[in-house]
Amino acid sequence: MRGVCAVSDGQAVDDASGRIAELVLKEDQHRQLVPDVPDAEGQLEIGTRIRVRGTFQRWHGRRQIQVIKLGMGERMHAVAAGLLTASADRGRGSKRPKYRDSGVGGASAAERGGSFKGMDSRCGHEAGMMYGSIRLGEVESFRTIKEEEHTMQNLERLVLNRAVENSLREFTVSVLRVDREIEYAAKCIVMRGRQKSEQDQVDGKNRVSASEVSMGTSWSQSIEICRTIRSCLRKLVNSGLILHVDRAVGVYATVGDWNLRRLIRHCCRDALYKWKCSKKRDLVKERLVITSKDIWLKIRNHGDEWRHVNKTLVTNMISKIMPTLSGWYYAGKGRWILYK
């Protein structure tokens, strides 16, 4: 969730540490950052205490906070887990926040077991289906598997499964940390690495740089958890299983019907236009034929965030989306023919 809220300099919150600060809504415009709550009392009143996790930034010479997670407390029973885009320029746009995907549930995170359960499914993924090379719905909790299986690879499977299963179209590290399973899994990996580091230090294998000693670097579990989740997301991006849509803020996105359908339709329209131009000169066959590989290559060139998108993932989504487009029929071996 991204928004802007004025806070005092004494309250330090940042996305890396994951610390939570309590803020009080003192001005009427601050309420515009809080989504509508499905409650009889409507929006939060001035003076309501909210819990915020986010990053500070400078904005017109004042301290601001870039809101990533909001907790409304026991009375309101709501957690905003989507991405909220509030206009920074109050003079030009509406004071109401704009939603890319609000995903506001009617229960708190604690009532949902600390996960994102309660969101509606709109990404078109089914439990047990293949998402790239990973089968969703087959990921075990870190609470039940052996300590030897507390690996980064299993964390990648868990993060991807939870994000897709709960229809998180766009998310940040802090949004993922709302899920207790992901938080616990990252903590297990951090503690396992910590124990190994301490053992290496006892054995004389651990080296500490002079810069760390001079700066007085202290170990923080919360910071290490954020780094672990961020490293996990970076590997998923490099594997083409998720997208890094905003590098400045650290916003990631899943790949699904919601963002692939438009690109696939664009590829088909572009191929149809070129086919019609060539047909006028009798340079093509009677029917337009396009392959899944052609679509995948065009999607890769759509933007930097799509450059590493997984071919298997895109091909699986093409097989679901293409039959719903008018006139397209599957001809086998990854080929689609247009009958019009």
Automatic annotation (TrEMBL):
InterPro entries: NA-bd_OB-fold
Top-level taxon: Eukaryota
Disordered: annotated span: 89-119
Protein name per Swiss-Prot or TrEMBL: CST complex subunit Stn1 N-terminal domain-containing protein
Organism: Pneumocystis jirovecii (strain RU7) (Human pneumocystis pneumonia agent)
